[in-house]
Amino acid sequence: QVKRSGKNAFRFFDPELNTHYRERITLENDLRLALERSEFELYYQPQISLKGKRVVGMEALLRWNHPTHGQIGPATFIPVAEEIGMIGDISHWVLERACGQLAQWRDAGFSDLRMSLNLSPHDFSRKDVVEMVTECVERHRLPSSQLELEITESMMMQDSAGVAAKVRAMRDAGLSVAIDDFGTGYSALAYLQKFPVSTLKIDRSFVRDLDGPSTNPIISAITGIARGFGLQLIAEGVERMEQAETLRALGCDIMQGYLFAHPAPAEQATAWLNVAPEIDFAAP
Ligand code: C2E
Ligand code: MG
Ligand code: MG
Ligand code: MG
Question: Which stretches make up the EAL domain (predicted)?
Answer without folding.
Answer: 24-277
